[in-house]
Specification:
The chain is an alpha+beta fold. It is built from 4 helices and 8 strands; from the N terminus they run ββαββαααββββ. It has one domain: Jelly Rolls (Sandwich). The longest helix has 14 residues.
């Protein structure tokens, strides 16, 4: 088994900022020189997540809207009482989304559908620079 890893810095705006990571992840897979295997991407931190969607403006807006319904910014969160940072909603949203995804790599390319992209969603209540860890395991 072969293992390759790297990290990518991503500037975000917070407040459910959605960033398409697909091209950067494909570049990482290519740099790994691993033709067949599995790419895993993880965002470091507890107020952001990684998932797969069709990255288009309507769906991005829908995603933001549903998270506003599930965990509203102005909700009553015990986290806010304890820490006073006002980002309880962002922790809840991130925990529901999850912090990592794995994607097969075949012939050096991510195995994704035509309308399928990998996105990072930053839920925090401020802009940030996110560290995204990428690991490719090959056989």
């Amino acid at each position: 088994m072969i293992c390759w890893d790297d990290s990518i810095s991503v500037k975000t705006k917070g407040f459910t900022d959605v960033v398409d990571m697909t091209a950067r992840l494909q570049e990482a897979a290519s740099r790994s020189k691993i033709l067949d295997g599995l790419l895993t991407v993880s965002v470091v931190g507890s107020t952001a997540g990684i998932t797969s969607i069709e990255y288009e403006p309507g769906l991005v807006a829908d995603l933001k809207k549903i998270f506003d319904r599930i965990a509203p910014e102005n909700g009553d969160y015990k986290h806010n009482e304890r820490w006073g940072d006002g980002n309880g909603f962002s922790h809840i949203r991130a925990s529901l989304l999850g912090f990592s995804k794995s994607v097969p790599v075949k012939n050096g390319k991510l195995v994704l559908g035509t309308w399928q992209q990998i996105i990072l969603v930053d839920f925090d209540n401020r802009s940030r620079t996110r560290d995204v860890f990428v690991q490719v395991l090959g056989i």
